[in-house]
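Internal ticket - ligand job 460, flavin-adenine dinucleotide:
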Amino acid sequence: MAVEAVSEILGRIRAELPGLRLLTDETDRESYRSDEASYLKSQLPMAVALPESADQVSAIVRLAAEHRTPIVPRGTGTGLSGASGGIEGAITVAFTRMNRILEIDRANMVAVVQPGVINADLKAAVAKEGLFYPPDPASFEMCSIGGNIGTNAGGLCCVKYGVTRDSVLGLEVVLADGSVIRTGGRNVKDVAGYALTHLFVGSQGTLGLVTEATLRLRPAPPPKATLLAFFADTDGAGDAVERITAAGLVPCTLELMDRITIRAVNDAFHLELPDAAALLLIESDLPGVAAEGELDAASAAAEAAGAVEQVRATNAMEADGLRQARRLALRAMEKLGATRMEDVGAPRSKLVELLNVINRVVAERGLNCGTFGHAGDGNLHPTFWWQRGDAEAEARVTAACEELYRAAIDLGGTVTGEHGIGVARLPFLELQRGPGAVRVMRQIKSALDPLNLLNPGRAI
Ligand SMILES: Cc1cc2nc3c(=O)[nH]c(=O)nc-3n(C[C@H](O)[C@H](O)[C@H](O)COP(=O)(O)OP(=O)(O)OC[C@H]3O[C@@H](n4cnc5c(N)ncnc54)[C@H](O)[C@@H]3O)c2cc1C
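stdout (structure tokens):
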């Protein structure tokens, strides 16, 4: 963008919004260059706006539209698909200052929040009222509700409580021309017109900027009972998940870590998890003795699948530690080199096949990879690492990921279970969804954002 054009749009924003924090210094903008998918080529945004109200967001978007300037909405930048990284010549709108919980409405079991609220802060605030906000990405202490809505984030308890979409009842959204709409609200049942709320959830900032969300709460569940099952091969772990699912059990956590991941977590955080080929973390939050009953049934399924050892957490601290170990898996791998975390999924009855494909691709290509993830949802995160700067190794990882995407699609699965298409998986969207479905997505995009200014080149 020409220097004069940049100074004209920024000048107009400053004139119309004198109170707005607008970062233009190169060092400041650097922090907004990429998200957590740092292996992707990133660009420096022209400016970063940190609005404090929907009115400010609306004015920024309106002025940007007048100047044909793209906008990148951003939460806290923990996304893993490149969708909140900077775009040259674009303004990044980061929601970190819009971080207020506006209301906890007990009568309707909803919370109304600004998009910059950190997931963990919302959980803690509603817990004080005996309530529960389920969406639980492993990054919950860092990521924002707006980002969770942008990605339709998953996490550790989706197997029982669903993904972010299942907890969003209504939104306030700034559209591409700066106008503001409301979708949904506090009604549990509401089928008036198209389901616009759910159209925006998971749209990765390409259809509108969320400035407020009405979220569904639940009564706080009882403390969890926790079981760890260890296996001599990943087939056994996958088989156990398939058996648990087929038995009609719905544990609140059903997570997998393979041997490489267990070792990385042990090394990075000085833990002493046994050196098995795979482990499953299985939890129940049913009331009273029902929790132990559910774990007994899961344990029987694990044994039938060949578990070599099973242990139960003896207290809440031990259980929290195990859950935290799983949450830290990506951070543990990052200590080994540059990383690329993948996000493939398959129907749960095909988990063993998905694990086998991952193991085969990694072995045949001689790559470093640890696999962990939300096995109960059929969603795995094979995470590759290589020496920083080794372009040849990185190219081999890219080729392996492309093979995994094709294999997941062949299994009736998905190239992304929860992180989103973003930039990372763009060429594979049509392969998974088909040209007809992608054409409809493009029509929706151009109806809502005819100038293609909202997060262009991401998601579709
Ligand atoms: C260690 C680690 C563990 C993780 N574990 C999980 C996990 O278990 N499950 C999971 O799903 N993800 C996980 N993630 C990925 C990431 O945390 C989630 O995708 C999260 O939802 C991103 O939130 P964010 O605030 O960082 O959003 P960002 O990365 O800033 O943005 C994500 C997307 O949302 C859009 N967006 C942000 N705010 C708005 C808004 N107000 N309006 C419109 N669009 C907006 C952005 O444009 C972008 O497309 C993990 C990441 C890390 C680093």
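Auto-summary: The pocket of flavin-adenine dinucleotide is lined by residues 35-36, 73-80, 83-84, 95, 115, 137-139, 143-144, 146-148, 150-151, 153-155, 204-205, 209-210, 330-331, 418-419, 455 (CB under 6 Å). The radius of gyration is 22 Å.
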